[in-house]
Structures are given as structure tokens and as C-alpha cells.
Amino acid sequence: MESTTPKAFRDFLGPEPERELILLAAIELYREGKLSLGKAAQLAGLGVREFLYELKKRGIPINYTREEAEEDIRLIEGLE
């Protein structure tokens, strides 16, 4: 079956266009604050570490507030 997608668009998306489109959607939903990091990674079919790498590669900042950092520190300190 021949694709009706223009060649330039297919070239941009690479060898796995469906996977790339899902990844791009997950990144955008994360960037807009509509998905958490974990949920966006899950949607993209990646682990959190891999998803963070994709964000870094594309220059997308991590949505992580000071309050979230402080909460994580309290949680970690409580484990000792």
C-alpha cells in the first residue's frame, strides 16, 4: 500500500512515522501541562529517563516546580 503522505513529511518523521507522531504529541501535551512526566512517557511508550532525554534533545524544559522539589526532598529524607 502506497502512502499518501508527502515525501518531505515522511522524511521529517523518519522510518517510524507513527511512533514519532505519538512522541511529538506526548511532548506537546507534557509541555502544555496537560500530562505529567510519567503519563507523557507512558503515552510515548518510553521510560521516564528516555522521555527526559527526548525533552532535552528538543530543548523542552522540565515542568518541575520548587514546591515539587521540596516535596521530593521531604519524601527522600523520610526514607532514612
Note the topology.
Elements: H1 7-13, H2 17-31, H3 37-44, H4 48-57, H5 66-78
Would you write up a description of this structure?
This protein is mainly α. It is built from 5 helices and no strands. The protein has helices at 7-13, 17-31, 37-44, 48-57, 66-78. Helix 2 (17-31) runs antiparallel to helix 3 and helix 3 (37-44) crosses helix 4. The longest helix is centred in the first third of the chain and has 15 residues, at 17-31. The radius of gyration is 17 Å and the shape is elongated. The model has no long low-confidence stretch (mean pLDDT 84).
> What's the overall average pLDDT, rounded?
84
The main β sheet shows up as: none
Strand content: under 5%
Structural class: mainly alpha
- How far do the termini sit from each other? 59 Å
Q: In angstroms, what is the radius of gyration?
A: 17 Å
